[in-house]
Design brief:
Largest sheet: 5 strands, parallel
Number of helices: 10
Structural class: alpha/beta
CATH superfamily of the largest domain: HUPs
Mean pLDDT: 91
Distance between the termini: 33 Å
Strand content: 15-25%
Order of helices and strands: HEHEHEHHEHHEHHEEEHE
CATH class of the largest domain: Alpha Beta
Strand order of the largest sheet: 3-2-1-4-5
Bound molecules: xanthosine-5'-monophosphate
CATH topology of the largest domain: Rossmann fold
Number of strands: 9
Number of domains: 2
Length: 317
């Protein structure tokens, strides 16, 4: 039986034993549960020897960067904020293959950290890697399903030593640790490292990313509203995906030929398996109407994904 308190004590002791006085560590903080919990543990162990780096990849959700900044300020973390969105958009221009997208994003992430780490003189790179990240990336002789962000992009000549305090934990255990640490993100839904780039099928251009950002915001807002009204339980994860498939529709009286948005909401414990969420029809209807009314005439169809994992994964890429 997993005991969060014991885990925290052991993890802190482990980090203390590794990072010597005078050495510094840098952490890849995305604002997600995993990286924030990892940061909290390392901060507890070595205090100001830790610096957090937040990279705005241009694939963050609406208002996310500002909210994350405020949260880390509250936690007292030393924070370096890097706006790398242009760099990312350029690197991903014309790239459509999901694994290639993931590898480019993961690789750039590590290089940006290396750049920041060099400036700061850090010796260690802390990551919020959890068990499903490496199991699904081909650890333990399993087939590669997706190269997860924290694993697939690591360059062979990486200069930083890795510290991964959550390496053996599953998602529900990370949440237990977050609650034990009284972190406000304990109940926050997971968000993948590659961000909205893997929610745009095909090329994740700034324009398409803007569409999926708005659609994700609508899905989150409407589901949060329904939860607050007591209409449904909060799903484990809920978001939108932009499909490059164009279909015919009408906007006003005029023929439209626009993209499709898929809504995905799942229940899960540890992300290894998931079932699609049973969302009330009136909630789905509000989501559909809001997406087609507010995003403009380039979206004229909204569908709901009713696939469990397996065979589907949670994200579409
Ligand atoms: P999949 O799509 O693999 O997702 O069923 C399982 C959970 O992991 C999240 N996910 C990621 N998280 N880096 C992450 O930190 C990644 O590259 C990544 N890909 C997927 C996904 O959102 C879901 O919660």
């Amino acid at each position: 039986m997993f005991n969060a308190q014991t885990f925290i004590e052991e993890a802190i002791a482990g980090v203390k034993a590794k990072v010597k006085p005078g050495e510094t560590a840098i952490i890849a903080c995305s604002g997600g549960v995993d990286s924030t919990v990892a940061a909290a543990i390392v901060k507890e162990a070595v205090g100001d020897q830790l610096t957090a780096v937040y990279v705005d990849t241009g694939y963050m959700r609406k208002n996310e960067s500002a909210e994350v900044r405020a949260m880390y300020a509250k936690m007292g973390l030393n924070l370096i904020f890097v706006d790398a969105s242009q760099e990312y958009y350029e690197a991903l221009a014309g790239v459509t293959e999901p694994e290639q997208k993931r590898k480019i994003i993961g690789g750039m992430f590590i290089r940006i950290f290396e750049r920041e780490a060099k400036k700061s003189g850090a010796k260690y790179l802390v990551q919020g890697t959890i068990a499903p990240d490496w199991i699904e990336s081909g650890g333990e002789l399993r087939d590669v399903i997706k190269s997860h962000h924290n694993v697939g992009g690591l360059p062979k000549d990486m200069k930083l030593e890795l510290i991964e305090p959550l390496y053996h934990l599953y998602k529900d255990e990370v949440r237990k640790v977050a609650r034990e640490l009284k972190l406000e993100i304990a109940e926050r839904q997971p968000f993948p490292g590659p961000g909205l780039a893997i929610r745009v099928m095909g090329e994740a251009s700034p324009e398409r990313t803007g569409i999926v950002r708005e659609a994700c915001h609508i899905v989150e807002t409407e589901i949060d509203r329904a939860v607050n009204l007591g209409k449904m339980e909060r799903p484990w994860q809920y978001f939108a995906v932009l499909l490059p498939v164009k279909t015919v529709g009408v906007h006003g009286d005029i023929r439209a030929y626009g993209y499709t948005i898929a809504v995905r909401a799942v229940e899960s414990l540890d992300a290894m398996t998931a079932t699609y969420s049973d969302i009330p029809h009136d909630v789905l209807e509000r989501i559909s109407i809001k997406i087609t009314n507010t995003i403009g005439d380039n979206i004229n169809r909204v569908v709901y994904d009713i696939t469990h994992k397996p065979p589907g994964t949670v994200e579409w890429e």
